[in-house]
Model the fold of this input.
Amino acid sequence: MFLPPALRRAEKKLTDFELMIHGSNLRTVLRSAHMPITAEEYLRTVRVNLAGTLVMFFTIWAFFLFSGFELDIFGLETSGTLLWILLFVLIVPGQYVMQMYYPQIVAQGRKSRIDLDMPYAISYMQALSTTMPPYEIIRKVYEEHDMFGEISKEFGMIVRDVELFGDDLDTAMKNLQRTTPSTNLRDFLNDLAIVFDSGGSVTMYLGAKTEYYRDQAKQELELVLKTIEIMAEVYVTAFVAGPIALIIMIVAQGMTNSTGMAWILPMMYICIPAGAIVLIWILSMMLPPENMEISRKETIEHDFGSNLPGSREKSLSEADPKNKEFYKRIEANKRRNYYIGLLRHPFRTYIRSYYYGIGAGMLFAGIVAIVWLNGGFDPIIQHDIPEAVLCMMIIAFMAPVALSYEGRRWYVQNIESHLPDFLRELSDMKDIGITLHEAIHRISGAKLGVLSSELSVASRDIESGAYVNSALVKMEERIGLVSVKRAISLLVRASEITTNLRQIFIIAITDFEYYLKLKRERSNTTIVYVMIIYLSFGIYLYTAYQLNVPFLAAFKGMNVSLDTAGNLTEMFNIGIILATFSGIMAGQFSSNSILAGFKHSIVLLVATVILFVGLM
Done:
């Protein structure tokens, strides 16, 4: 960006002053967050965004100020002025603070993910350490990004320094220690470097550290749950208890025919969604998500080489002209079999991608809107028809997506709950001398849910001539779960370097059971906060009912002018906002996923419609 010399010097002085305020820690935090930007550029970006926000805010304020709409709605009274002051404080300084803390939030989220995944990465490194040199072990973890996420990104920094910058392994590890947000990873790399330099046994060191980092991961999970607890208290206090107090004030204002608090409703319509969105965004940055991703990919390895007709390595452009038609038929058959597979397993196809649910949701919401526009709801709903239709449209959109997400959750839980039994049976059969091929064939007939069908496919692959390891790799790719990939990859890598797999089976089973234990602990703890959200929203509905039915009924015989219809509509609107965002927040607490909250939003919205349309 070109600036005159005077402005450039002034800009540099301003940047130096900001760095002095925020400290040199900003540079480290940006690197820990893996944000490819210097501290000076980031501060410049913050200033530009702040200036843009100021211009946008004052433009909107001037538009409303000099228009009739402003004078009719907000006016120039104390209430209108106070509204704009509050909006200014929330938007402008709030945006600046959020931008300055954003790298720290990202770095903290990466730290939690690293600490929770470290036990699995160390177990994987232990299995490889008997035959691989240290650098190759680190490089292998870097390549397995699907399994180890943020740890793979951190190890990628070591690979970059060694292969691109020419540093030795010890220097590259020290560079990572200076930038990683995880103190556990920093200590692990420091001790690992000492083992390298002293010539000690890397395998023994990794085996000794696995249990230690399991305890560290448990402590990190406790910190994560503490963060969820704080966020839950903030949300319930500010965005549920607050509206309850405010609607009581609104009803009291209606009884006195006062309009001094007319600015409260616009604030609630703005602040509740905005505050909930900010909290959801912060949670998504800081908390590790529940592993629900299903990533399927076709393996490109070939058991019998790559020179066979139809192999992926030979494109149609490289093929012999005489065989081009043959290759085209193979590709056409593959596409046909792919679509046949989708039709044969509609449930798996539906949960495979959320786009199917989103498309169905948009269709159903559109149908609800068309029925409303044609007057189809007029005989059923007597009042507040737009609000009730909005609820139904949200429910119609969320229901198919929630079905897709919950179907995927069932699939994940079904696979994960049976995997330890599969590993135990496989280990027992290996101990009595049964080959892996025969063991897989025998276990495929056991009752292991969805896993049994995948084992049957793997058994048929082996009978068709595929290697056992290749069949297992293809099975893990078909299943597509990170947790399964960790366990199966550990067995595959170990079987390539040794025939004594008992210790590897023990490691794999222990790791997976530990993973399931942490998952259960998180689920059992977060259900409390989900119930708190349900309880607080139920209190809101009960308060709204009491204010609109028994309380107002006591004033019917008195000469009191009350706008009951207006109050009811306002409470209905606030209820819709609270139901939608409270449900999403519940899903964020339980699984760190917006989609996990759709089912809660549906339940709360149904309760809202029943109360405001059916009972009042």
Notes: The first helix runs from residue 5 to 22. Confidence is low (pLDDT under 50) at residues 68-79, 298-316.
